Amino acid sequence: MDLSQATVLITGSTDGVGRLVAKRVAAAGARVLLHGRSDTKGRDTLAMIQREAPGSHVQFFRADFASLEDVRRLADEITSAHDRLETLINNAGVGFGPPGGRREMSRDGHELRFAVNYLAPFLLTHLLLPTLRRSTPSRIINVASIGQAPIDFDDVMLTRRYDGRQAYGQSKLALVMFTFDLAVTLQGTGVTANAIHPATLMDTKMVAQAGLRPQSSVDEGADAIFHLATSPELDGVSGRFFDGRQEARAHPAAYDSRERQRLRELALELTGQSADVTR
Questions:
Q1: DSSP strand E in 14-137: where?
Q2: Residues 261, 259: Cα–Cα separation, whole Å
Q3: Is residue 276 domain-resident?
Q4: Which of 118, 162, 168, 255 is catalytic?
């Protein structure tokens, strides 16, 4: 995909791998829409990109993905300011948390990792789909993880026995399941949807907070995401899960259409969507 005339939204792009992807996309000539929840980090990232990629077009939008109201406002602001969106990279997320960490909740009363890592991109993508459809060929890239865990539909919010790794793993599986759903329903529209595990335990604050030793660099992860966003070899490729640059298999539940339907119906209810606009 030629980024020289493209508009690209990268959520969670004021830190970690998202920040590096944003710089690379800006340097490639795209109009980059940054997202984060801190105005200070947003200004710092804007300044960094404009310094290192002179002449780039970058804009910052603030929203806290722990709030569905903020997600709706973000979508409204983006669609009001831009009538095209060629690439959406859903990168914002919350990690395991510290060892033995307590269960946290979003502003809407949902388990935090399920809310930020799945419900927020689910809602944002739905709200931006009309713009993505108008901008074809366009790509949706969901930054997931190889660390996926089955979803307990009897206790999705993990109220009985909380574990940060389980919370993270099921939220990332949910994101992959959403990706596969999108690919099916958007077939033939010119919009593709793929999920990616960029790299294992990148050297980020998220990994440090979890008390884990990094196994790969942020550059490695950014390279994989950038490749998925731009490679001409992936034109028209949809409904795939990638481990770095290589196609891989996701958790078996991601390929179960009944499980995906059950999850989709739950997400529509929790996000207050009256209908699945992908269908």
A1: 31-36, 57-62, 87-90
A2: 5
A3: no
A4: 168
Q: Which domain holds residue 93?
A: 7-271
232 located within any domain: yes
DSSP state of 65: T
Q: How many domains does the chain have?
A: 1
E strand or H helix at 269: helix 257-271
CA distances to 34, 58, 74, 81, 272 from 13, rounded to whole Å, are 6, 11, 14, 19, 26
Q: Identify whether the C-beta of residue 176 lies closer than 8 Å to the C-beta of residue 241.
A: yes
- Domain membership flag for residue 89: yes
Encode pLDDT of 113-147 as tens digits. Answer: 999 999 999 999 999 999 999 999 999 999 999 99
Rounded Cα distance between 12 and 19, Å, is: 8
**Nearest Cα residue to 165 out of 199, 210, 203:** 210
Asked whether the beta carbons of 238 and 136 are under 8 A apart, the reply is no
Task: Look up the pTM and report it.
Answer: 0.94
Helix (H) or strand (E) holding 175: helix 164-185
How far apart CA 36 and CA 27 sit, in angstroms, is: 20
168 is catalytic: yes
Q: Hey, CA dihedral for 269, 172, 169, 208, is it positive or negative? A: negative
Distance CA 208, CA 170 (A): 21
Q: What is the pLDDT of residues 186-222, one digit of tens each?
A: 999 999 999 999 967 666 666 566 566 766 688 898 9
